[in-house]
Amino acid sequence: MAQRTRIWFDVDPELRNRFKAAAALNGRPLREWVIEALIDRLEDDIDAREGLTVLGEVEGTVPLRDYLMPGKVPQRVQG
């Protein structure tokens, strides 16, 4: 079994109360609710990155990294 580790961070009391209320409305302990929310956010971030990667591979487009670099002339993706 994998060993767990703790993550500590401070939140405003009002935000903590909102977290607790959302967890309670879903019938889950706060710990489970926070972990699920973090996993959902991580999956969304991964999906967004993968989507941007695919968009950068479309023929005739300019990769975002090249577009944002100052002084660099963007090169279009060739098919």
Structure description:
The chain is 57% helix and 0% strand. It is mostly helical and 79 residues long. The protein has one domain (13-68). It starts with 12 loop residues before the first helix and ends in an 11-residue tail after the last helix.
Draw up the topology in text.
Layout: H1 13-25, H2 30-56, H3 64-68
Helix pairs in contact: 1-2
Quickly list its features:
3 helices; mainly alpha; 79 residues; elongated; single chain
* Individual helix count: 3
How many distinct beta strands? 0
User: Helical residue percent?
Assistant: 55-70%
Ranges where pLDDT stays below 50 over 5 or more residues in a row are: none
Work out the strand percent: under 5%
Radius of gyration: 20 Å
N- to C-terminal separation? 47 Å
The helix-and-strand class reads mainly alpha
Total discrete domains = 1
Overall pLDDT? 80
SSE string, helices as H and strands as E: HHH
